[in-house]
């Protein structure tokens, strides 16, 4: 059977797809695209597999949580195995144990160790060995048996800094005895250390010109062997410096001398303006 080519108008066989005369395409062959069908089918299969895996993992996770709840709801010890499922329980138990020991360590770190009295008087200026008690009293003592040194007992002094005119009056109006240390800031050592009893006063005289700090240790029951208070011991320092100066000035036919005098109170008083701060016992002992 023949037909006419719509382009060149010549007769051609009806079964040909291309005109043999003008080589124009007379019929376009449409093939079935099976690849797209298979790709879509494979995609749906992959999605189903992922969904199944998620469902399996969710059910596995739920079962592990249920086992974990049962594990701690019983009053007995369980041995953790090494298979894949029990591995999660092992990790959980390790984290719980780790947090427990961290909390225990933190609690012990916050618990202060019992304080041991420290000698407040160095052996010498060259050798500042800190002495401590061998046997700290563990039972409360009767206040009537507390030992005190006589008021004004000088424990140490450096005569080089005690050839001036300055004076420092120290009042101890509290119920605790005190050790007062006058520290020269240039030397960074005590030039005069004195024992001042409760409700007593002492004046340090002949202080050489310079800047000084006043440290003091309050407490009860003085131990003459270790040179420290064994009851209610506390250490402080006055924040402000004591600047001792001496100068001469003329007044008529006379030459007068003016020098510094200070007065402090170790116990808090109404209207007092001197600020103090706490000091570490070891630091106090080194002066």
Topology:
Blueprint: E1 2-4, E2 11-13, H1 34-73, H2 84-110, E3 153-157, E4 166-172, E5 177-184, E6 189-196, E7 200-207, E8 210-223, E9 228-238, E10 242-244, E11 246-251, E12 254-259, E13 261-265, E14 276-278, H3 281-286
Parallel strand pairs: 4-13
Antiparallel strand pairs: 1-2, 3-6, 4-7, 5-6, 5-8, 8-9, 8-10, 9-14, 11-12
Keywords: Membrane, Transmembrane, Transmembrane helix
Transmembrane segments: 91-106
Can you give a write-up of this model?
Keywords: Membrane, Transmembrane, Transmembrane helix. The chain crosses the membrane at residues 91-106. With 287 residues, the protein is an alpha+beta fold. The protein has a domain at 143-286: Sandwich (Immunoglobulin-like), CATH 2.60.40. The protein has helices at residues 34-73, 84-110, 281-286, and strands at residues 2-4, 11-13, 153-157, 166-172, 177-184, 189-196, 200-207, 210-223, 228-238, 242-244, 246-251, 254-259, 261-265, 276-278. Strands 3, 5, 6, 8, 9, 10 and 14 form a 7-stranded antiparallel β-sheet that branches. It starts with a strand and ends with a helix. Mean pLDDT is 77; it is low at 30-39, 74-82, 109-114 and 124-138.
Short précis:
The chain has 287 residues and is of the alpha+beta class.
Going by CATH, the homologous superfamily of the domain at 143-286 would be: Immunoglobulins
* Strand tally: 14
CATH class of the domain at 143-286: Mainly Beta
Q: Which segments are poorly predicted (pLDDT under 50) over 5 or more consecutive residues?
A: 30-39, 74-82, 109-114, 124-138
Radius of gyration: 48 Å
Number of helices: 3
Largest sheet: 7 strands, antiparallel
Query: What gap, in angstroms, lies between the N and C termini?
Result: 129 Å
**Helix-residue proportion:** 25-40%
**Pattern of helices and strands:** EEHHEEEEEEEEEEEEH
In percent, how much strand structure appears in the residues? 25-35%
Principal-axis shape: elongated
SS-derived structural category: alpha+beta
């Amino acid at each position: 059977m023949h037909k006419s080519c719509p382009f060149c108008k010549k007769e051609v066989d009806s079964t040909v797809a291309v005109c043999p005369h003008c080589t124009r395409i007379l019929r376009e062959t449409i093939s079935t695209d099976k690849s797209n069908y298979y790709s879509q089918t494979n995609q749906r299969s992959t999605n189903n597999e992922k969904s199944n895996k998620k469902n399996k993992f969710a059910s596995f996770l739920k079962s592990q949580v249920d086992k974990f709840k049962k594990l701690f709801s019983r009053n007995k010890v369980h041995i953790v195995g090494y298979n894949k499922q029990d591995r999660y329980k092992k990790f959980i138990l390790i984290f719980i144990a780790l947090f427990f020991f961290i909390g225990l360590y933190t609690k012990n770190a916050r618990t202060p160790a019992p304080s041991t009295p420290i000698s407040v008087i160095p052996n010498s200026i060259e050798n500042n060995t800190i002495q401590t008690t061998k046997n700290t009293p563990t039972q409360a003592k009767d206040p009537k048996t507390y030992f005190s040194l006589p008021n004004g007992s000088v424990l140490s002094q450096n005569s080089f800094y005690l050839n001036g005119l300055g004076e420092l009056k120290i009042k101890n109006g509290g119920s605790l005895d005190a050790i007062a240390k006058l520290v020269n800031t240039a030397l960074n050592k005590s030039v005069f250390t004195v024992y001042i009893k409760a409700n007593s006063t002492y004046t340090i005289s002949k202080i050489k010109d310079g800047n000084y700090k006043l440290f003091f240790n309050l407490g009860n029951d003085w131990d003459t062997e270790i040179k420290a208070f064994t009851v209610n011991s506390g250490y402080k320092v006055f924040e402000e410096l004591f600047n001792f100066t001496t100068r001469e000035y003329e007044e008529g036919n006379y030459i007068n001398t003016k020098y510094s005098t200070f007065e402090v109170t170790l116990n808090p008083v109404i209207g007092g303006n001197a600020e103090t701060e706490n000091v570490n016992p070891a630091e106090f002992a080194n002066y």
